[in-house]
Amino acid sequence: MLDPLARRALQRLSAYVAGRNSPAARAAREGPPPVQLASNENPLGPSPLALEALARTAGEWGRYPDDHCSALRDALAAQLRVPFECVAVGAGSTALLKSLAEAYLDPQQTVVYPWPSFPLYPWIARLQEAQEVQVPLDPKGRHDLPQMAEGAAAARVVVVCNPNNPTGTYVSDAELRAFLDRLPGDVLVVLDEAYAEFARDAAADYPDGTRWVREGRRVAVLRSFSKAYGLAGLRVGYLVAPPEVVEAVARVQEPFHVSAPAQVAALAALQDRVHLARTLAVVAEGRRRLQALARRLSLRTYPSVANFVWLDVGRPAGEVGGELARRGVLVRPGPAGSTWLRVSVGTPEEVRRFEEALEEVLGGCGNGRGRRGHRRTS
Ligand SMILES: *Cc1c(COP(=O)(O)O)cnc(C)c1O
To answer: Going by CA atoms, what residue is nearest to atom 14 of ligand 1?
Structure first.
């Protein structure tokens, strides 16, 4: 029940429900620890260098953190070959997304975003009382860029989720450049690249959005330490954008918004090439196995370049998610009524647990989607 005195805008949104807080996930908590494939985290966990840095600096946590995140921004600027003034850090890239919305969207201004995509886009738009233009993905599960460009004619912000969560599909370098060329100059383009590290590894024509920042375009690139870098629990992400965009964000960020441990761990993780390479290898292999599973069970899917796969299980995904949870495997079902669910790529053992559970759930339900008796439809 919402307090009737709360802002009217709040009646149009509900609190975000994370994968691990779904009813199915709560039920699974009774048994042994479940396999966590619901939130696209790094299955190897944090970099050992990050853990060392945390242990080394724990004595300093009685002090406020560096409000400018100087060391981390310096390292990011050097690695990305952009000036320090082009980098902002936030408590997760979702915090930066919210800051961008607070800085750029007055009530009734328009934001364009793809759908289905990251549920935080509509949530933040509604919080700002913005007008939303939701552009459906095309039949291949990809951004419909011509439709988005049309919607952008009267928009203040356009969001490109690259690769897209939950489909795992991506917009190529040439496609994105052509799209940017079509947009009016007074639009802020937000490139959400939370999964950039995986996509770069998987597709040669996956664009590095920071290049357009170096070219001086009004583009804001969002990256995260929650996914490939394995620091989801610490809440840290970054933004690469023209200095005037970074200044706008700085004016809405609250003081000391990124904790000292988050800054220290992110700096160390950024330097740990070995852990990142290991992560990318585990994810590439696990993703291949999940795609092979989809072929074996004749489940529709899209070619993912991220650390998750979106599967059409041919039955209400909420139910299938519940049955998987009872078998100790947590995944992320699509919105109510959807037959699609998103599964994160885990360790080989976690992928095996998911394969077994899914084959059992789909094979045992007598709908012809199981291992036996189902013909390929595509
Ligand atoms: C996970 C995710 C994020 C970021 O998460 P943070 O933990 O807030 O950095 C951003 N965008 C998309 C599309 C994501 O899936």
So the answer is: 194
